[in-house]
Amino acid sequence: MKTYLVSIVFLAFVSLLNINCVSSSSHKSPAIGYADSINTEKGTAKKSIITAADQVPEYLGYLKGKRIGILINQTSIIGNRPMVDSLVALGVNVVRIFGPEHGFRGTASNGDKVGDSKDPNTGIPAISLYGKQKKPTKEQLADIDLMIFDIQDVGARFYTYINTLGHMMEACAENNLEMLVLDRPNPNGFLIDGPILDDHLRSGIGMYRIPISHGLTIAEFAQMINGEGWLPNKMKCKIKIIKIANYDHDMPYVLPVAPSPNLNTQQSVMLYPHICFFEGTILSQGRGTYMPFTVLGAPLLKGKYDFSFKPQSIKGMSETPLHQETECYGLDLRKFDTSVFHKTKQLNLKWIMDLYKAYPDKARFFDMSQSKQMGSFDKLAGSENLKKQIIAGASEADIRKSWEPGLSDFKAMRKKYLLYP
């Protein structure tokens, strides 16, 4: 009877969302939108993927009577309404919001330090975990009974939200606080590839000994952090997981909301694991345009490639992009068929190898001394070998062979933590 009543309340709430929602449309793009209600594969109809957050009856009763903290950003939605607004409307006692890189409303540029604030919609205090602190203090957790984690990940080691997850798990473990993980699909969940991170290259763009593309959902990754003893002193965080319905790792998934300002299309999300390590080179990945992570280029490639673009300062995306106000020549990947990645199950190495060969000033290709980009190529790749292999002209087969046995060992370890086929 109790479950039935919760379901009735939820259905009524969903109706209200459809009539009078507070949307996060400023983070959406024509290429980012809700997946069709029926997914088809090889002509066979499949049930719609339902995120954990959208299964309100599964967790609403668990929240009632508790003081709730939430670690969220603009991807944390119920229906198409921001989670914090939705939970407050459902009578949940949300006492504090925590936000990752780009802020909990997702409006800050990459790398920007985000300060603490108060949510203008609800008046709830919002604490930034991407600035002066990476995890909550004991005082900030003292009046919280349960922490919710609900952030869309894209499945790449250098995407910082898995780091944010680990820091919050550490804080919860230290303070004997349970974390409720509301799972979301990994759009690159079919891809497990790349060199395993070397310990001495650990950084803010690579904390864990995993390949570039790990093929896990955020809840599966939380289980791996616990299971592999990756928290300090091998602490364990008590976690409760609400699973995604009707999901497997090989299913295509169109993100309903752009996960960050520079992943503003589905195409950029699918290309991201393959081209983010270009941020450790002299080439632009389109930051400073409205097509980031779908183009690659540099001024010195003029005459070698016909396609060009000009990075400019764009508030909320890239204010000081590489090669600002300078025409860049290179590759246009906006229409590249990303479905090939489902077939090969491999990172694309051809682009980095071809562009290095084409670049006339090879001594500066990996020179980041003049750049304000994410980090060194070695830290992004997770290994010093890849750069050396590209410079030496190693074959793709030899490069991939060098990732073993680490990659195979990771794939075997990963199976222990899977929640979905």
UniProtKB/TrEMBL annotation:
Signal peptide bounds: none
Gene3D superfamilies in the cross-refs: 3.90.1150.140, Uncharacterised protein PF07075, DUF1343
Pfam families named in the record: NamZ_C (PF20732), NamZ_N (PF07075)
Domain Peptidoglycan beta-N-acetylmuramidase NamZ N-terminal per the UniProt entry, residue ranges: 68-266
Gene Ontology MF term list: peptidoglycan beta-N-acetylmuramidase activity
Superkingdom of origin organism: Bacteria
Domain (Peptidoglycan beta-N-acetylmuramidase NamZ C-terminal): residue spans on this chain: 270-420
Matches recorded under InterPro entries: NamZ, NamZ_C, NamZ_N
Protein's recorded name: DUF1343 domain-containing protein
